[in-house]
## 1
Amino acid sequence: MIRTYIDDSWSAEDDNILLLAGYAQKVPVWAAFSDAWKAELSKEPAIEYCKMSEAESRKEQFEGWSERKRDKKLADLARVIVEYDPWSIECFVSQKQYKEILEPVIAYDLRGPYMPCFHGIIVSLARYHASTGITLPTDFIFDEQGKIGAEAVLWYEEIKANQKPEIRALMGSTPEFKDDKKVLPLQAADMIAWHLRRRKENRNARENREVMEILSPLLRVEVEVTETVLRKMADDMASLPHIGLTQGKRGSIKRHMVGGKLPEMIALVCKNKQCGETFDVMKDYLAQTGKAPCPFCGQERYYIPWLARLIKWIFRI
Ligand SMILES: [Zn+2]
């Protein structure tokens, strides 16, 4: 089994990119890495954990450190990453472009720049693995403090279901969210995501960070959610029948979700004011027909906002 640890980094510069990045490696190697990372953290000057935002501002764990002292610590930690030879995956999107192109048409439950990036990361990594003959599936671990929500878990199952069998076979179980202070490879993901995001900012583009030099021998898989991809997604989305019903808060199906998933049976309240009865509909029926006739008054309402159906449609790209 391969495990991939991913962190998100958000820019406040230029086009406000969102970048997801992290490292993949076999599970036993990660176990050895974690011991080595912990040992490196404990070396004098010791820190309990490494977080790039704290290192950069020299606060918290790096409080009172000189830049030189901080840089040396980061370089030593980066060398630990290189020693265990993980390969990285990164995907970014311009939030400015996302807002202009996709946000005006996107279904409420899919809104936010995270979704196209999340899709880009997991599908691209599986495709890369397939192209290199890797046969082990990949699990994903995300930093629980990131902005990714429970809906990503639902996206994952649907994205997976929409891949070719040989790609699907390389996608592991539902992503998990862990504490980066306890799950140490997430600190390596933070390190690479932070540096890659920073390098994409115009004012920092020429900056030469020692950490990036040290990490440069490792294999990188890069993906960009380009303007073309966003336009394709937006066109696809806009042409969906009844798309208007999925936009805005009222179009959300999340209120039907239990523990991050839609139950087999969904309880609906009849919208006919004279009726107002509650009845259950099978989610598969909703997904296929997009409508639910009330068994009490017979009024038929469209419930096209079935998230999985939308995702199936979007993710054909
Ligand atoms: Zn009714």
## 2
Amino acid sequence: MYTSMIQTIAVVASLAAYSVDATATRRSTKKLTQGTTWTLEAWGYEDTSNGYMIDIDLQTKSKDYVKSLVDGGQYVVCYFSAGTAEDWRPDYLDMMEYASKDSRYPGEYWMDITQWEDFKHLIKARMEEAVEKGCHGIEPDNTDAYEYGSDAVPGETKDSLKPYQIDYMRWMANTAHELGLEIAQKNTVDLIPDLIDVMDYAINESCAKFSKNAYCSNYEAFVKQDKAVFGVEYNTNGDCSDAQSEGIMRKYKNSNGSQWMDCKISTN
Ligand SMILES: *[C@@H]1O[C@H](CO)[C@@H](O)[C@H](O)[C@H]1NC(C)=O
Ligand SMILES: *[C@@H]1O[C@H](CO)[C@@H](O)[C@H](O)[C@H]1NC(C)=O
């Protein structure tokens, strides 16, 4: 009895080790913790800082490019829009079948997130592309559709959309992990309590600008768990002391149009 239990445990343990192994190659790399420096090459930006994490566009960057970054020792986050269909993407027509209405930007349409289970295969295909290209993590953007209520999905409200948004994002996080990818929680600060257990790091735009007291306190939950929080502020000439006290690796795009100003955080 005792022996067979040990054997059973050994079998279960080796199965577990095997399934973890299958995904361990990417996820075993250094975690993105507090103090991680970064470079933003996604969202149409150029950023020449030489950060440890580099955020790039999944669909426009090649496998060779990702390989060169990985070989250079960087941690690669691959960006895609999970909440809009964009008319310059190769899978645009497939995405449009589940789109609800035009979004904030030209050529971009909100996905009807009430149908996320019907289009999740398209999102999973993008995650598989990230795996195939060698990305360590993903940054699914435009996951804030629910905040726009009927402006994103006609006939819905922020409250009616919120549960769909949470389920969709939890599915993305779990699927990413199954594929060996880590995942960023992009914006969607209201959902931090619902998602932080499955999110590996956070990326926010304009929290110093928009949060009422210019203090991005919602992100404390990530900071406390030593999960990196990356922030960008636009058209402001910032000061790094706020970012440092908040624990946010923040970049300021200066209003004079000069290069990014990078706020670094020392972890010693
Ligand atoms: C970033 O975070 C702040 C709160 O800390 C929030 O007000 C703001 O809306 C977030 N940015 C976006 C684009 O959602
Ligand atoms: C732009 O602003 C930043 C921050 O205030 C400053 O460090 C930099 O020298 C400025 N660049 C130019 C070209 O004025």
